[in-house]
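Q: Convert this sequence to structure tokens.
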Amino acid sequence: MRLAFSTVTVSGMLVLVSCMVLRHAGYAHLGFDVLPPASYERPPQVPFDRSNYAIKLEQMTSFYDVPGEAGYFINGEDYGFESLSIIMTETHPHGGPPLHTHETEEAHVLYHGRMEYIIGGRRFTVEGPYIARVPAGVPHTFVNAGTEPLNLTAIFPSKHLSYKEIGPNPLVATER
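A:
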């Protein structure tokens, strides 16, 4: 993480106008500057026109999972896909979803960062870039094992995203 400062000179004095945090080049800020206290799921803010080929964040369902995973998802059938659904996240350090399953297999794509997983009975940590394979019906979860937020993309070969929560994320308790 780097800081970027904007300054101007006024009457011979250097004045700080703004300061912003610059994160690594592979990161897109999708969530919050201050994390919400409770989990939620919200419908899209703007309707999607199926004649468009690009889907904007405000046209997707948004969600937040305590303690630090914000994101957006699409059920492919609502956006013109015949066999594809997608989740895009901003996962903060020590954040991740509850332990859960999906009816279909899932692929996680991470370009930058470090994630700790539980998939079935296996626990492991992996550094990006990588693609993780999650078999259908297998309980799984993860946490950001790094020190900066990261973006994860999850891809499902189904026009409808299934999600069944099993319980709390066991990695969160061990991380704190």
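The CA atoms of residues 6 and 12 lie 16 Å apart.
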